[in-house]
Amino acid sequence: MAKQENWIAPSILSADFAQLGKDVKDVIAAGADVVHFDVMDNHYVPNLTIGPLVCESLKKFMDNEGVKAPIDVHLMVKPVDQMINDFGNAGADYITFHPEASEHIDRSLQLIKSQGLKAGLVFNPATPLSYLEHVMDKIDMILIMSVNPGFGGQAFIEQALEKLRQARQLIDASGRDIRLEIDGGVKADNIAEVAAAGCDTFVSGSGIFGNANANDANRYDTIIKQMRDELAKA
């Protein structure tokens, strides 16, 4: 199966929450493809971020403003099943979770799929890909963490590139329509290397929102164009 088109997925964890709707509208208008939610519970990871009410509000705003982009929810919570239901009801399109956070991985994946959503697993730097062995038929996305989860703005862990290559081999061997996503430390200066390892979906928080001039009406155009130009080299 041919590699899928590249998606740039800004993580709203790094956006300005005082003007979240505007930031999302502007970054999608600048050429981003996906709205990425990093959901942390101060239990599975040492931080507390956003919940389903924010997702629901943003979904309504996007619909009202005519913003067309899938909402990609990355659950860093334990347990996961209740949050799967809540974010499904709040308008998520993709829901991914960490296998360590579910007592029954297959059941949690089925729960996502039963709501008509795309499902995926997330792999921390030291989490083996072997969790995929018996559930590839329920997987629409594999997310490789290139930082340890819990905080934005961390440096990229180079070992993630080898994990991406391994995941790409598994996807290609399966013949299934599965996206390969990366999250953590992705910026314009390393996105081409990440793509060359097999990635097609690139989460970037501070790499996008942290590099924009708040007073520039077209503040995201430059950084996203830089990313697209780098991806064209991969």
Description of the molecule:
The chain is globular, with a radius of gyration of 16 Å. The protein has 8 helices and 8 strands, in the order βαβαβαβαββαβαβαα. An 8-stranded parallel beta sheet has the order 1-8-7-6-5-4-3-2. Strand 6, helix 5 (160-174) and strand 7 form a beta-alpha-beta unit. The chain has helices at residues 20-29, 52-65, 81-90, 105-114, 160-174, 191-196, 206-209, 221-233, and strands spanning 7-10, 35-40, 71-76, 94-97, 118-123, 141-145, 179-183, 201-204. Helix 1 crosses helix 2 and helix 2 packs parallel to helix 3. By secondary structure, the protein is an alpha/beta fold.
Distance between the termini: 18 Å
* Biggest sheet record: 8 strands, parallel
> What portion of residues belong to β-strands?
15-25%
- In which range does the helix fraction lie? 25-40%
Lateral arrangement of strands in the main beta sheet: 1-8-7-6-5-4-3-2
Helices and strands: which structural class? alpha/beta
Total count of helical runs of at least 4 residues: 8
Mean of residue pLDDT values: 94
Low-confidence residue ranges:
none
Round the Cα radius of gyration to an integer and report it. Answer: 16 Å
Order of helices and strands: EHEHEHEHEEHEHEHH
Q: What is the number of E strands?
A: 8
What would the principal axes of the Cα set say about the shape? Answer: globular
Short description:
With 234 residues, this protein is an alpha/beta fold. The protein has helices at residues 20-29, 52-65, 81-90, 105-114, 160-174, 191-196, 206-209, 221-233, and strands at residues 7-10, 35-40, 71-76, 94-97, 118-123, 141-145, 179-183, 201-204. Strand 4 (94-97), helix 4 (105-114) and strand 5 form a beta-alpha-beta unit.
